[in-house]
Specification:
Length: 141
């Protein structure tokens, strides 16, 4: 999988260094679609990260919120958010999750409406369950 992390800060360099391990751990090495990680302050009201399926550009866009201050803790939080979002990239790439036009999702062949609460969404449970292990392996790798 080709990837790019946008930015020139310490945060972007740190996240860029973790991407090869995350891609390998998630079985995305041979994925035909690229992923662009954009670190941003403006677009993520109330969220730490988001993953968008950019079909028209044949890639995935991962948005990560830049903290007000860069500290070891904030960098680790960003890495954890990146791991969480990369699980979503894997879910999309492997066809486990699909976005529907009305903000509903299909997970493992079952349709879920946008009314399902965040922590009851199975794709979120999967991402939360895996994010910590992915980060620890990426940092230790």
């Amino acid at each position: 999988m080709e990837y790019a992390v946008e930015g020139k800060s310490k945060a972007s360099k740190f996240l860029n260094s973790l991407m090869p391990s995350m891609i390998e751990q998630l079985g995305l090495t041979n994925s035909q679609r690229a992923v662009l990680v954009k670190i941003d302050n403006d677009q993520l009201d109330g969220m730490e990260g988001a993953t968008l399926n950019m079909e028209f550009a044949d890639c995935y866009l991962v948005l990560i919120k830049h903290p007000k201050r860069l500290t070891k803790t904030s960098l680790l939080n960003m890495a954890t958010t990146l791991a969480h979002e990369m699980v979503h990239v894997k879910q999309l790439a492997k066809g486990q999750m699909k976005f529907l036009p009305n903000q509903a999702r299909v997970w493992m062949g079952k349709r879920y409406s946008k009314k399902v609460t965040y922590l009851d969404q199975p794709w979120e449970l999967d991402a939360f369950a895996r994010q910590e292990i992915i980060v620890r392996k990426a940092i230790g790798a």
